[in-house]
Records
---
Amino acid sequence: MAEQALTDLRTTHNEASGLRSVAADFSSDRQAFRNVSWGKAMMWIFLLSDTFVFSCFLISYMTARMSTTVPWPNPSEVFALTIGGVTLPLILIAIMTFVLISSSGTMAMAVNFGYRRDRKKTAVLMLVTALLGATFVGMQAFEWTKLIHEGARPWANPWGAAQFGSSFFMITGFHGTHVSFGVLFLLIIARKVWRGDYDHERRGYFTSRKGRYEAVEIMGLYWHFVDLVWVFIFAFFYLW
Amino acid sequence: MAQAQASAHAQGQHHPIKLYLVVWAWLFILSACSYFVDFFQLQGLLRYSLIILFMLLKAGLIIAVFMHMAWERLSLVYAILIPMSAVLVFVAIMVLEADYTLLSRVVFFGPGS
């Protein structure tokens, strides 16, 4: 530290690390997130707000489950499926988890190929991601149909505490909506990648800003977030 | 990892594809582990601690590697992660509230009261 202080003040200021760099960034009297584009910073801030939305759902579910005097339905049994005569607990949810994780993997690689300016691989990987996302939504629709046929409603269900239905439809419904919009968003960006918008810096229809491959990474942030939320829903709603 | 970190300072994120495949494999393993927690019907403290452990490991891998948080500028990392601690405060408040609600339900609506 002492040696650093003796060197030129300006360089120590620029190369500050740890908490000092955070203080320097926020007190610099200019753009706080240096070398982070506004698009990426705004997506992160949106995701933070979305985190609070999902947190509120999960916390209200926790409150309902902790405060009810009626026994909570056992998700392991409610979501069990019989395949070929064998009853497996939570099997559909497990498959959905693997599908969503796989879509996150293909998305991460799409971002990587985007920065390598490999137009075709990026577009194909994004389409695979969209396909896996659509598969996830399809399986969720199947799960909803099955539960509704068995008598689950937001206000009542045959297995126990009524709040189970309200929490289930609210949380998985909101998450499924996020996945569905993600699929749409993916298809739009994949089309732009395929057309070469980001190679030719074609201007966006709404923003009139030059297209850059960073759009793929920003799309990726949203998609990984959807996967991240599912990790928490899987742990707290299905496994707990 | 060190190589990836060094080259990430250039424009955009440049990491070897292998990194993503390794993380993907780990996410599969961790998801399988958390599924087996339910499959083998583990109960009690072991169940809850394993669920939380696998959940946090998965979330950490997704945020750090897939979302590139590990290579972002520290001021952005703090700006996003620190506000999330407010959620933990909210959880603590609602745990107290839920316990109180349960107590009053048991006292006033329970059988024999």
---
Amino acid sequence: MTSAFLRAIVDTLLPGDHRTPPLPSGTAAGVATELEHLVAGLDGALHNVVLHAVATAAGGQEAFVRADALGRIASVRTVEAEMPGPFRALVAVVLQDYYEADVVLLAMGWRAEPPQPQGHAVQPFDEALLGPVRRRGRMWR
Amino acid sequence: MAKLDAVDVVVVGAGLGGSALCARLSERAPHLRIVCLERGDWVDRSAMPAYRRDWQSAALGAWATSPNVRLSAGGSRSADYPIDDSASPIKPLLWNGVGGSTINWAAHVPRLHPSDFRTKTLDGVGDDWPFSYFDLEPYYDLNDTAMGIAGLAGDPAYPPKRSPRMPPVAIGRMGEAAARGFNAMGWHWWPADAAINTVDRGDRHACNNGGPCLMGCPIQAKASADIVYWPVALRNGVELRTHCVAQHVIVKGGRAIGLAYRDGNGATHEQPAAFTVVACNGIGTARLLLASNIGRGADGALGRHLMFHPIAYARGMFTEELDGPRGPVGACVYSHEFYEHRPGRPFTRGLQLQVTRENAPLHQAARLEPAWGEDAHTRLREEFRHSLPVMVVAEDLPDARNRVALAEGVAADGLPNIRVEYTLSENSRRILDFGLDRAEDMLHAAGAYRVARVPLAPLTGWHLLGTARMGDDPATSVTDGRGRCHAVANLIVADGSLFPTAGAVNPGATIAALALKIGDDLAREVGR
């Protein structure tokens, strides 16, 4: 599996966008590097099956790399339809790496730090909102 | 098999039911020798993912709520066994260890309504409980005091609650948006009762709204049985043996004489006891009792009448910015406008509308369709911190065809494999559809410009109820009103398996109250 092919796959699944702030592509977020490590390891067998299928659907790895965006999407959709379970497992893996990348979390308007220890600020409760409910009679039986 | 010294009471399971019973019984009858066997271990709070940057993916692996997912991921702290849930659209969720499923619960602790204890009498469906809400009320109060409850007095959907409350958990922008919608519809709503500190209480801190409660609370703001009931039980002399898997209840002459169990080194022991208590949740309890050949007849109630709380989601999209995953996930606001049975509706009994916090970015992205490509980015941009989920929680009525049953083969823990057979009833489907329509009405009234629906959420099987139900008739129930098995009088059940009916609210407060009551009943019998 060539690096160029894996980068092309990752950026087809995670193209990023150009809003403000922009979402980076999967490769720019470091996902392709993670995927290279994964498919080279023992846990990569299932994902390799999917990746080979995409290459086959495209006419080879180089052909997939050379294809335009629509051509790549068509090849990926073919494999998604053929083997939805394994394909979804591959997507899950790249989503995990992507949405845990600091640059992506920040682009989503979130923060890179985990929930603890600082927690989050949530605005206090305005009890006046309950006025109409408090005026109701007993509801329970 | 080594035979150990006899004890007065052996308890299986150190979760909510087992721990509450151990704490109460040891307090009321301090002369008893009580041993609790727990298949798992204490949870290590320093290992909880909320401090780590990979906390989102941890929730999809070793810290998932599903034992099957955790087993697939490997390396979980929960001592899980596989559950064949292929014949159930709702997948069981639980935790196996000291504290049980309170380790990864949301700590939303509503009580049942008084009418939930009398469904047969009032509405002609289900079965009446052997006692009333008001019989259980003192034990609800005891549990409230032990756990510490954040909430607000005066909810007209309930009788007045006497136990003190901390200020409610902040409902935030999402709660206020929902309140706007409920008020516009003229419907009931109320801030959730939560077993979550909103002020420092003893050695437990106030919640800082970190959010991922379902992966454990490392700051101990969220109550769980390991930090609430076990310190009391251990101080009172209860012996807790971890990594010990009960294999079967030993019955002779119609009485339980103890338990056979396997310890962490694989050695087997016989623990003689005057009373045996089983509190392993709605699946584990049935599994152990069925494996012990108790009530195993084809028509027996044991393992049957499994009830979940079927859940659907309506998710409203708002232009305004909301809180997203900030705040305790399950403790925001709820509506009981449609909780009580009303003739003329297209279903029997009722539902809760529960507003929750949102998912973290990864979890929200993982459930979207399409999951990849430009459209996936666009959809997540639209939803993240702009969506408001409303859970429709249906009351599931008992049906003997829904059950947990032994399956072929033996699991690695030495017990038979287990499977869940469950079909969503027509009544539950109609409740969910009605509730989705009402949730959509509310969300539009609150300002949502679009509402997306999830007709039935599969990974919501937190509440495992009814498989060793209480009742007077041994043909249709497993235990009496004190949790005593009809077939074996000194064998006691003390968990959610006992529920004859389910109501439409989270069962944690009722499970704890039941276990405290059973502890009192047993203390009275053996003398103080």
